[in-house]
Known about the structure:
Layout: E1 5-6, E2 18-19, H1 24-30, H2 41-91, H3 109-149, H4 158-161, H5 169-195, H6 203-211, H7 216-225, H8 253-268, H9 282-299
Antiparallel strand pairs: 1-2
Helix pairs in contact: 2-3, 2-6, 3-5, 5-6
Amino acid sequence: xxxxxxxxxxxxxxxxxxxxxxxxxxxxxxxxxxxxxxxxxxxxxxxxxxxxxxxxxxxxxxxxxxxxxxxxxxxxxxxxxxxxxxxxxxxxxxxxxxxxxxxxxxxxxxxxxxxxxxxxxxxxxxxxxxxxxxxxxxxxxxxxxxxxxxxxxxxxxxxxxxxxxxxxxxxxxxxxxxxxxxxxxxxxxxxxxxxxxxxxxxxxxxxxxxxxxxxxxxxxxxxxxxxxxxxxxxxxxxxxxxxxxxxxxxxxxxxxxxxxxxxxxxxxxxxxxxxxxxxxxxxxxxxxxxxxxxxxxxxx
Length: 300
């Protein structure tokens, strides 16, 4: 079987030279081509879809954590607005039958309005942060839709049909749209109801507080359904554990003070264990005084 090109034998010699053939993969790499170019069109599209899907998975999880923290802040702010609204209604005599207990001093209207605006801005800033994050996420959602439109969903590949460890890609196409629409519609409801809040009306505030109630079922659905493949999720950074020292340094001020006292006492102790008297003795002092007097008398 011929495995390469042959050169004609020279006159007077029966030696045949066989030149090795160059593989297709070596030719592609030598030309500087990317490895995905050797894939078919369907495989390269699947790679792009999977890459964007993994980015969206991270985006949705990050946004959900941001949304959950924002709901905690907004619930606290809404509780403060609840009391401020009732106090303001009493001052303005808009509702003489208000159930808010009068266990506080009557405050000026300007003070209540200023405090109301502080907590109202907490709600507005939280909603604006959600809006900014959703607009940034929308770019990846659009890219995911465009890449999915190029897929041939009629082919029975493991990526399209799914396997033992992976769900079909059709499931994630619908899931991405559902999650983004759910988060965006939730933001629109919060933004609309926040604009309806009024210091003289409790009804919009009651409806707004109902929107802030957490949903445990949605959290479970999000965490279980969103993961495409656990093996593709990057491992978390290892937790830094400091080396344990043999002797634990004192932590409190009392321990530090005690250690300094023990060190000072050790310096003053002799080999016999008795405390040394670092003050000059009386005999030494008298001898030094006499010596100084004799020196002065000699020079006088």
